[in-house]
Amino acid sequence: MTIGTSAGTSHPELGEPTNQDAGEPHEGPRSNRQARRTFSAAFKRAIVQEYDTAPNGSKGAVLRRERLYDSHIQEWRAAIEAGTLEKPAAGARRGRPKNTAEQIQIVQLTKELTAERTAHDKTRGQLASSDAALETLGKGVAFLEALSSKNASSPAPTTSHGKQKP
């Protein structure tokens, strides 16, 4: 996917700035926005040269035609002078660096520890519940034993006819 300029470029041999993520479907809340433009080193050199050779009254026209800002030109000029305009080395990556093996292991062990702690807390809760149930059951048994011993030691109640209840 290429993003054209408003009035076209005066450098057709350099091509237009391209979308960095060409061909990838975009989803999400900002999927309707245009993707960020990327510029080749040759395009940047040509625009800086054209900007520098343009007469004082028409430098803004170059920027408007290419939909650029003066800060682009300043950054590109500084990169050209420093010799860092070309693409980064093949081994260099952009974006967030990958995790090392130790960092991956730390993340994995942290997840396992969290899972073990969760299981431990769940088991501890079940144990507390079982202890409470056993304590209640023990009190019930003690109550029944006390009631049983009380009934065994007391004489059987008599009825109004003088006979004992069975």
Rg from C-alpha positions? Answer: 42 Å
The helical percent reads 40-55%
Low-confidence stretches: 1-9
Counting DSSP H or I runs of 4 or more residues, the number of helices is 4
Q: Mean pLDDT, as a whole number?
A: 79
Distance between the termini: 100 Å
Q: What share of the residues does DSSP label as strand, in percent?
A: under 5%
Give the spatial strand order of the biggest sheet. 1-2
Largest sheet: 2 strands, antiparallel
Number of strands: 2
Description:
The protein starts with 17 loop residues before the first strand and ends in a 13-residue tail after the last helix. The chain has helices at 41-53, 59-66, 70-82, 101-153; strands spanning 18-19, 37-38. The protein is built from four helices and two strands, in the order E-E-H-H-H-H. Strands 1-2 form a two-stranded antiparallel sheet. Helix 1 packs across helix 3 (70-82). Mean pLDDT is 79; it is low at 1-9. With 166 residues, it is mainly alpha-helical.
Topology:
Elements: E1 18-19, E2 37-38, H1 41-53, H2 59-66, H3 70-82, H4 101-153
Antiparallel strand pairs: 1-2
Helix pairs in contact: 1-3
Features:
mainly alpha, 4 helices, 166 residues
Provide a quick synopsis of the model:
With 166 residues, the protein is an all-alpha fold.
